[in-house]
Sequence to fold (137 residues):
Amino acid sequence: MPYNKPIPEPGDPLTRPFWDAAKEDKLVLPRCTSCNRVHWYPRWICPFCHATEIEWIEGSGIGYIHTFAVQHRAFGGWADETPFVTAYIDLAEGDRMFTVLRGVDPTRPETIKIGAKVKVEFEAASADVHIPFWRVV
Fold:
């Protein structure tokens, strides 16, 4: 089945390293070389120390559920998948990422545990764009 959800356009030089790595099923994250902290989403200036020395590092692909919500309404391609679970993931490297959570039953939210370990996985949305999702392990 073709991917029928919105597909990001990875033309921005700021996010190009992220999308290039995602095509290889790798999670890369921006890190400030001045304060050594990872930040998500990508920015030209570190949100912690305001330095402009940013590098990209390969992340572990491991995280933990910070919080989640069950989505019962959606539009476009997502409407076909309701209900589904969205979540904020605390990355092992620091900071937090928003995602659609996989490997959980949205009809039984009581089984989803805050702090549960998750691992990143990638779905090919097109030949040039692979989207990261997180799955409970």
About this structure: The chain has a mean pLDDT of 95.
